[in-house]
Amino acid sequence: MTDDITRAASLLKEHRASIDRLDAVLVFTLAERFKHTQSVGRLKAEHDLPASDPAREAAQIERLERLAREADLDPEFARKFLNFVIAEVIRHHEHFQS
């Protein structure tokens, strides 16, 4: 291999190792988040509160879009991601209520 190809392969390996570590951080962070949202779902079920809170969800989406812009991440992607997470949380909350 040429020196350029060897260097590129080494950089690729380093980037992929960082990506793998960040994927682990994302998974563990999501797991922790869902532990809390499940506690919220149980609390809502115990007190006969609705599974969904549209005002809170809208505020969270707005907040995440702002954070995404600050982090130089596409706010549309952040919104889609949070909508996906919110849908899963609501599904869990509805499960607790049934």
Q: Layout of helices and strands, plus pairs?
A:
Blueprint (H helix, E strand, L loop, with lengths): L2 H44 L7 H17 L4 H23 L1
Helix pairs in contact: 1-3, 2-3
In short:
With 98 residues, this protein is mostly helical. It has three helices and no strands.
Q: What features would you highlight for this structure?
A:
0% strand; 98 residues; 86% helix; mainly alpha
Walk me through this protein's architecture.
The protein is mainly α and 98 residues long. It has three helices and no strands. Helix 1 packs parallel to helix 3 and helix 2 (54-70) runs antiparallel to helix 3 (75-97). It is elongated. The model has no long low-confidence stretch (mean pLDDT 94).
Share of residues in strands = under 5%
Q: What would you report as the Rg, rounded to the nearest angstrom?
A: 19 Å
Mean pLDDT: 94
**Category from helices, strands and their pairing:** mainly alpha
Q: Tell how many strands the DSSP assignment holds.
A: 0
Cα(first) to Cα(last) distance is 62 Å
Q: Note the total helix count.
A: 3
Order of helices and strands: HHH
Low-pLDDT runs of 5+ residues are none
Helix content: over 70%
